[in-house]
Amino acid sequence: MKFQDIKSVFWRNFGGVGIPDLQDVNQQKIAFNDSMSLLRSLMKVCSARWVNSWQAYQFHKEKPLQLLQVKYLGIKIPATLVTNNPEQVQEFTQSHQQVISKPVYGGAYARSVTKPQLDFERISSALRLAPVTLQEYIPGTNIRTYAIAFFPLAPKRSHFLH
After folding, report:
1. 108-114 long-range CB contacts below 8 Å, 24 or more apart?
2. Computed over its alpha carbons, how large is the radius of gyration of the chain?
3. Which of helix, strand or coil describes residue 94?
4. DSSP structure string for 103-115
5. Which of 1, 34, 83, 134 has its Cα between 20 and 30 A from that of 63?
6. What angle do helix axes 54-61 and 25-45 make, rounded to 10 degrees?
7. Using one digit for the tens of pLDDT, what is the confidence trace for 91-139?
8. Contacts of 53 (CB under 8 A, 6+ apart)
9. Measured between alpha carbons, how far is 81 from 162 in angstroms, rounded to an integer?
């Protein structure tokens, strides 16, 4: 099959590009970046009908951006904090009866935050590696949904989650 013969594309998930392990970390990074650049370029110039384009896939993973868009559309979201500050984590968890944690970049499921996880040293150590998304727990049946819509992004705002 030729590239130009592709008429439509749907992809459920993307596992990245396969790069062999290299001893030189810089060569590994260059090989990965070059492979990803070629793949993204091919996806963007492909004239096929994309059910879920690269931009849509990226938006699907960018959870803070999704929350902003949902809020912009007028949909109420639970109290949310995205941070790498341990003091803010403790303050947020103390101000809500029950809290869940989610990754900032999509893929994993939400988990309840437990008291042992709130040990200051543990939080500080984890947040030195990456930020976390915390949300007020809303009781009820957990239903994961995806909405497919075409709309402009919200205007840029410096503080979009309160």
Report:
1. 110/135, 110/142, 112/137
2. 20
3. helix
4. -SBSSSPPEE--G
5. 34
6. 120
7. 999 999 999 998 888 766 788 998 888 989 999 998 999 999 999 999 8
8. 43
9. 7
Instruction: Report angle CA 159, 84, 156 to the nearest 5 degrees.
Output: 20
Q: Give the span between the Cα atoms of 49 and 32, in whole angstroms.
A: 27
CA-CA distances (angstroms) from residue 114 to 89, 94, 99?
A: 12, 12, 8
pTM of the model: 0.67
Beta carbons of 89 and 132 less than 8 angstroms apart:
yes
Is 70 in contact with 78 (CB distance < 8 Å)? no
pLDDT value at position 160?
A: 46
